[in-house]
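Hi R.,

Here's the chain you asked about this morning:
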Amino acid sequence: YFESASSYPTGNDFSFFLVAGIDTITNAYQAMFSIRPAAGNPSFQIDAASDSSFLVRFLNDDVGTNKDFSSTPVHGTSIYEFIFDDTENELEVYVDGNSLGTTSYSTAPNPQNTLTLFANRGRGSFVDGFVAEMIGIQKTVSSTERKRIEGYLAHKWGLSDSLSSTHPLTYLSIGEIEFFPPARVQPAEFNNSMDFSEDFIE
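And here is the predicted structure, written out as tokens:
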């Protein structure tokens, strides 16, 4: 698993995108990623919620309302998306561009906490699977920005068929996809981003 070498301050508004696949689940607390309480709560993890299936659960302390986002297993290689919107006080979760719903998000994670990938907050339960790429952005991405990132990741990792046939970027090549917003949007809005794409994590 991966853990950030220092604190990962998410900010109040933030978004995560992961290209990942789940092979086997044997523990409900096996987590895809977490903001672990290295310095204390608030903290959260995205875990299985089941001892046999990954149901995309938001499990937290003092961040918002716990929720299982799927009632059926979500295991295939997919684009997993988590959009935290402080203005609307909600977390919305998408898989391959399809919304799985929302839950209440009321308090940002402790800025001194660390990020773990494929490990839960206690670093005792680990997902059996792989991560091809993870992108973290310190902003609530707009619908247009979200779709551009989905298109970028889908074309980069051969997941175009996973997007809806009505997705605006399904049939574009990666060179035709404008990933970042137009110049009128300050690049600083995408600062503190991270991208794990050089190393395949398994």
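One quick note: The longest helix spans residues 143-156.

Cheers,
M.
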